[in-house]
Amino acid sequence: MWAYILVCLVLCTNGVSPKLFRKLHGLETELNRLKCDMHDLLNTYKNEMGKSPFRNRSVDAITAAWQSTFPDGNYRTNTKNSIPFRQMNLRDPDTILRMAEYQAMVYCKSNILNSPSDISSIVKMSGKNLRVGNFTIAATGFDKYNVLYWYIAVNIPQQSILLVHRGTRSSNRNDVYDDLNRGRIHNSHGQLSGDFPYLLQSKDVYLDSGFYTRFQHEKIPIVTALRKILQQYSSPSFSFVVVGHSLGASWAFLNAAYFVGLNDINSRLSAIYTFGQPLLGSASFVNQITTKFDTPSQRYVRTVNGNDLVPHIGCEECVQPQYSNEKWVMNTTQVIWKDCNGGADPQCSSGVPCNQLSWANHSAVGRFSMRSEFCRVANNMQLVKQYERRQLKLGKRLAYILRYGAEKEGLQVDEGWISLSALAKVPLLSEYTENELLGEIQTSYSYRKTPRYQWERRPNGIYVRAAYGRKFERNPFHGQTQIRRLLDLALEYVCQNIDKYDFEGFPDEFLINEVIHRIKRNGKLTSRTLQGILSGTMEHLDLDGIYLTESGIRAVYTKCPNLRVLSLKGCGYILNDHYCEQLIRKCPLIESLDLSYCRHLTDRTLDNLTKYYSENLLHLILSGNQNYTGDAIVRLVSGCQHLRQLDIWDNPNCTNDVLNILIALGKSRSEDRAITIVHKHLQHPAVAPANPWAVVSAKTV
Ligand SMILES: *[C@@H]1O[C@H](CO)[C@@H](O)[C@H](O)[C@H]1NC(C)=O
Ligand SMILES: *[C@@H]1O[C@H](CO)[C@@H](O)[C@H](O)[C@H]1NC(C)=O
Ligand SMILES: *[C@@H]1O[C@H](CO)[C@@H](O)[C@H](O)[C@H]1NC(C)=O
Ligand SMILES: *[C@@H]1O[C@H](CO)[C@@H](O)[C@H](O)[C@H]1NC(C)=O
Ligand SMILES: *[C@@H]1O[C@H](CO)[C@@H](O)[C@H](O)[C@H]1NC(C)=O
Ligand SMILES: *[C@@H]1O[C@H](CO)[C@@H](O)[C@H](O)[C@H]1NC(C)=O
Ligand SMILES: CC(=O)N[C@H]1CO[C@H](CO)[C@@H](O)[C@@H]1O
């Protein structure tokens, strides 16, 4: 991870921000303390880049190096994959290498694919002859660049559940900032004892704030997902293992430290494996936690590569755990495993002088690199790529059919549900098997960590549907024939001659919305057309994704004063507070309003909603806008007493304080006025019962 700082320093010296620079300065101070010369290290790093056996190896060379890392050299035979984790020796090199494999998979993403959020390459790995064998991905977490940074894998044959944390990614500057955040969090703030209640209140308890921030950020989604999975695999023969490398190792340590304070999870936690873990906190902090890990039996295995620099840096006075843990030192030239007495054992990496430390093999476990080259081991790149492209195409086609195209493709649709066997017969999906379709349906998650699809078993087979966002275009043909439906012909004619029609009083709102979207798809929707279509009787209007001009917006509020359900999702930048106020005042009956991705609205709009809609507003979606403050959201929730669903998923200004106020407001409501609040950091039995795994159901129409 630190390597990347240097890469950046070398490659983008001109682009280093003052913030990063200050942090680098902190690092330099520290390297001085270790008697390492920053500039020497830079040069060393540059040289090592060229020399490292982990760069530019051929697939054959990687495979050979990797195979020779295993003492018995038989990783392809798959013989050990189904040994239950509990029957393996925690500190056996083979067991450690299995964990390294799980760890390596988190890096495979994004290095191979253009679509890093897609976890299919990891899923694909489960089909390969890896030590870890056959597993499924049960939950995933993505960073804000949509790149995988943690996942939970379930390995049924091996009877284990694994939580894996990614380390720094070269292209993610945020990771580097986190790593470099050299502030300390001290227990006197009470913050630490909240998360790690078993820590004694000693004044020496503190940790590096960068790692703590990372831990805090994902704590709730991880625990939520984990509890669900532990419940699903409740048999005590299933073990639960936490794994992490580099930044991910610190994060794994903190997560595990959090878990040991939670009885239900602690009783299931079998082991913690870290690789190349940087210094994390004070002796008092890391030693108390390690003691807890290793009670009643040893569970913590810290793997350190002999010459790796990273385990030597962290906040000032931060140390490696000293007691009860055991460390393996690896020599990457000739693989040697060694037991050590805690992090300060001078016979181990602590005894290596700074000028012999390097970053080049920070990712090494023996001759095996946990970075992206591992993905190539799993076979030839081309195959993986072909597979990825195929999966990507499958994802897009499934989304299209299950959300929009099913009826048009001639499928029977009942509240979105479609028979899987019928789905597999659609020509667009003909190259995929039913199992592949179901696999994609079961493992596809939106960026909100919600499942994209649902499936259920019925007496006559499996049925699937899109969990949200369904807007079917009607089948233009009769059944399986090529005879077009009258309605379709009529709509086409109407759309082509839209100027000749007057919709005033026309009763079928579904058709009106259909006409609007058809004309939009044809690229012919102007404000004037819109004006012609809208009518005073309309109660539902869906303008999702339709770019509105001033006169278009005016048409909505002048022509449709009786609207009850309105979606203005992503309607463009003309929609500002001023126009929104007009709309709010002139359409006084609105109950359900989607303002997501209306990026130019601010608190003024929220205050107008509070003022004019205090009696009628039931559903409100405000995601995709960074401008709303916590205060205005609090005013809205207290003012709109009937609001039942508020979606502020990604509002960055909802701090814990704000969320706590919202929870208090929600709890103070009577049962018939209960409110659900959707925010990515909010999980609460009363106001956010199913978050973040719930289906986002607040949709207009
Ligand atoms: C990788 O190795 C090949 C063959 O050994 C060499 O031609 C090529 O220049 C190397 N590429 C890099 C980026 O070092
Ligand atoms: C993988 O494990 C699942 C669940 O135990 C099992 O149904 C499946 O047959 C296994 N696949 C392989 C290739 O072993
Ligand atoms: C690695 O092992 C070889 C062979 O035992 C030894 O010569 C070398 O010094 C070792 N290197 C380190 C860094 O321990
Ligand atoms: C690991 O670091 C040592 C010391 O800098 C270096 O001699 C060795 O080549 C490195 N090994 C790998 C695999 O990069
Ligand atoms: C309503 O919106 C208008 C236009 O942006 C703004 O001037 C006014 O202050 C808002 N009203 C309230 C109560 O905030
Ligand atoms: C909301 O949060 C963003 C990101 O943290 C920040 O840039 C912005 O200034 C905040 N806006 C307000 C109105 O507080
Ligand atoms: C009116 C206002 O402050 N709009 C800002 C809302 O936030 C976006 C960025 O997310 C800015 O581009 C807008 O200018």
From TrEMBL:
Signal peptide range in chain numbering: 1-18
Broad enzyme group: transferase
UniProt superkingdom: Eukaryota
Record's keyword annotation contains Transmembrane helix: no
Catalytic activity, reaction form: 2'-phospho-[ligated tRNA] + NAD(+) = mature tRNA + ADP-alpha-D-ribose 1'',2''-cyclic phosphate + nicotinamide
EC numbers on record: 2.7.1.160
InterPro entries: AB_hydrolase_fold, Fungal_lipase-type, Leu-rich_rpt_Cys-con_subtyp, LRR_dom_sf, OBL-like, Ptrans_KptA/Tpt1, RNA_2'-PTrans_N
GO biological process, one term: lipid metabolic process
Domain Fungal lipase-type: from-to ranges: 166-313
Keywords for the protein's UniProt record, in alphabetical order: Signal
Protein purpose: Catalyzes the last step of tRNA splicing, the transfer of the splice junction 2'-phosphate from ligated tRNA to NAD to produce ADP-ribose 1''-2'' cyclic phosphate.
Name of the protein in its database record: 2'-phosphotransferase
